[in-house]
Specification:
With 360 residues, the chain is of the alpha/beta class. Helices cover 48% and strands 9% of the residues. The N and C termini lie far apart (54 Å). 48% of the residues are buried.
Length: 360
């Protein structure tokens, strides 16, 4: 069984970090959220001179059995079609990775499709994997959780391990900050159920339009998910956290949880994207509360309940741009703000060196 040794961030240098921030030649608190970000990164890295190196973006693909129940406007084949599009550099996440200098790694952990041999690789080496799909397929999509658990205990453990291995490969290339994107038609459904079960929020308030369902589609989705939860609760009156995660989660989602936990174990920074990845962060925090210390929540989207899920985590998103593409686009767009916070600590002068009167 894969275990994670995750410890809370050491707060012993919080005072000296705050002192440095307050002595930069600016009015106290005038850089707002950037100052909060700088504090977080400094504490994670335990330094007054933080740095960001070799940012990596993991794009995880997997299909969902629940999609067969008509809970998504997009058909299942869009998952594999978009995965191929990513290998050609044509996705939104590709564009933002190029813009912000991210090493992007595309990983099949459960797509219901056999990709051509010339676009797949089993190597985690960044040069070999570039422009290819890393093959870590666990099955051709999860099972339909309306009738049974989405994955077995063995598959759940495998997904956590794959997530950790992907992070280790990035770290081997010098990475200390990661973002995660997902491609999996139907994955708002497990996200909504996790939100309901972990947050004790009415299920109807957790369910939204996903990729664009109309009002009748949302009604149908609520009916399907309500039935699935009722059956699960009847069979599991006192479920454990892992049981909830594996019964409803997708392979790409549990792999993301494994990656988030490994990031926290290694004291790195993880950029958490929109509704799906926030649900994965919520699940990760259920497993290891201290994992939240290493998370930067980047974007609050329009999916129903996303803001409430952030509230459950006591988190404030950096951006609210109405993005609902997935793929980790919100995290990639927010990266320059984290970079600005780090540059503030390293490049701004202080009052003494600038010969400016400190007036507070």
């Amino acid at each position: 069984m894969r275990t994670f040794d995750i410890r809370p961030v050491d707060l012993s240098m919080q005072g000296v970090v705050q002192q440095k921030i307050d002595n930069l030649n600016k009015p106290k608190g005038s850089l707002g959220r950037l100052e909060e970000l700088a504090m977080q990164v400094c504490l994670v890295q335990q330094t007054l001179t933080p740095c960001l190196s070799h940012p990596c973006h993991l794009l995880l693909g997997g299909d969902h059995g629940i999609e067969r129940e008509g809970v998504s406007l997009s058909p299942r084949e869009v998952t594999w079609q978009q995965m191929l599009n990513f290998t050609r550099g044509g996705g939104g996440c590709n564009m933002f990775c190029r813009q912000h200098g991210f090493d992007m790694r595309i990983v099949d952990v459960g797509v219901d499709h056999d990709f051509p041999a010339d676009v797949t690789t089993t190597s985690l080496d960044s040069e070999t994997a570039c422009g290819h799909i890393i093959d870590r397929k666990m099955a051709y999509g999860t099972r339909n959780f309306l009738h049974e658990a989405a994955m077995s205990e063995a598959a759940y453990e495998q997904a956590l391990t794959v997530g950790a291995e992907l992070v280790d490969a990035c770290v081997a290339d010098g990475c200390n900050i990661l973002s995660i994107g997902e491609m999996g038609i139907g994955n708002t459904s497990p996200s909504s159920i996790w939100m309901y079960l972990f947050g004790n929020i009415p299920l109807a308030d957790c369910i939204g339009a996903g990729s664009g369902l109309d009002s009748e589609g949302v009604r149908h989705k609520r009916e399907v998910l309500s039935t699935a939860v009722a059956r699960f609760t009847l069979q599991h009156p006192s479920p454990t956290i892992p049981e909830i995660i594996r019964y409803f989660g997708g392979f790409e989602m549990v792999t993301a949880i494994g990656a988030m936990l490994r990031v926290a174990e290694l004291h790195l920074i993880i950029l958490v994207d929109g509704f799906i990845m926030t649900a994965c962060a919520l699940a990760a925090v259920q497993l290891h509360l201290a994992a939240k210390d290493y998370m930067v929540f980047t974007h609050c989207g329009d999916e129903s309940g996303h803001r409430r899920m952030l509230d459950l985590l006591g988190a404030k998103a950096l951006l609210s741009l109405g993005l609902r593409l997935g793929e980790g686009t919100g995290a990639l767009c927010a990266y320059p703000l984290v970079d600005s916070a780090v540059r503030m600590m390293n490049e701004m002068n202080n009052f003494d060196n600038a010969h400016i009167t400190k007036y507070f």
